[in-house]
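Quick start: read one record
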Amino acid sequence: MSTGVIIVLIVIVAVVVIGAAVLLNLRGRMSFGGGRDLKKRFGPEYERTVARHDGDAQAAERELAERVERHGGLKEQPLEPAVREQYATRWAAAQERFVDSPREALTEADRLLAELAGSRGFPDGEQYEEQLAALSVHHADHVHGYRRVHRLAHARVTADGDGRADTEEMRQALIEARALFEDLAETKQLQRS
């Protein structure tokens, strides 16, 4: 073989290898949803994650893609009608309790959301961060309400009252968390029927 043919073969092999590497890179990004797809899938959760990474969209996208890889295949378990009704009754009781005992109502709502998510097949409530990550993959638009309720329910209250959330903040958190409750308890579908 002549030197020219060898050079042409080397160039062709190099182009093929580089092309394959580029395709694998693009395919990997697409399997994780890519930036635009992640932004669409996660909505406000995407923006919160970017903010938590100090504006580093690539770091946020890596985290969100990892969540999708870990929890994207999770299949939510259906609720039996009697179980759904029990959860709905407990949620209504927590909301009613809010008037007299806002902190206790918030604590009950936090516990109830953790239990309900566990009943639907999400990681156990004892693993809050893991449960929240899984919920963010499947209920990204409503997971922030649970995050707020959990934070406020577990806020340490000092003797002078520092760290104590005001009643309005707790009320807003409970209202925001209700959307996740309705999604998990499938009560919106029932109301439309």
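Residues 3-71 form one domain.
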